[in-house]
Write a structure and sequence with these properties.
Layout (H helix, E strand, L loop, with lengths): L4 H8 L5 E11 L2 E9 L4 E4 L8 H15 L6 E5 L4 H11 L4 E4 L11 E5 L8 E5 L4 H4 L3 E9 L3 H12 L3 E11 L2 H6 L6 E7 L2 E4 L2 E4 L15
Parallel strand pairs: 4-5, 4-8, 8-9, 9-10
Antiparallel strand pairs: 1-2, 2-3, 3-11, 6-7, 11-12
Bound molecules: adenine.
Amino acid sequence: MGVGLDRILRTIGDPLRLIAPEFYDVDIAGQVTSLPMLQLDDQRAIALLMDIEMGLAFGDHVGRSLADGFAALKPDIVVGSATLGIPVAMDVSRHLELDKYVILQKSPKFHLADALEEPVRSITTDEQQRLLLDRRQIPLLQGRRVVIVDDVIATGASMSAAMRLVRRAGAKVLAVGSILTEGNSWREALAQDAGLVHRLGHIPQFRIIDGEARMDPASVDESPIKRPRL
Ligand SMILES: Nc1ncnc2[nH]cnc12
């Protein structure tokens, strides 16, 4: 779901505030994608990935690429976090030829009165968020081999909550996947689980200097992504 995204979008407001250089090109599993560069506040900018606006061909590429990485692990089911992890979970499931998938919700839907709940301990947001698992979905996870997917792993707080929730439901987490990682703080947040991360690309974080978004050197990728030869 990209922790803090709601706040990011509220901060940005409408119309979107593009800041120079206006776009950041990122390689997503061999496909160069231009992300709009948006000003967050006086000091920070973000290269924004809105997977729900990227079209079906992009979803198919992401789903196939993540599924290729997961196939050898023989997962029984894919779990995705609302909101922007939902299409990722569907596209990965389709490519793994798995019919059912499980979505972790952010807000209590009326049918989720008695959901399993995990707090999302974000270091960047004051607002306490949470992830919810409908108890009726537990049989899909109990004793199962699971992969968890999201659009972006940034702070790692959301993915870490998703892993706790899925493990509480009795599943084995084989791997986690995202379209992008952003910055490096997720490594600390996920601790020993950081090694389970499959990502198709990486974006840095940006500071605004002299009216331009500049890469924060601490946020570039520490371990370059291994790409399959095309
Ligand atoms: N750059 C980004 N794009 C979309 N969602 C995000 N969540 C956190 N960072 C994000």
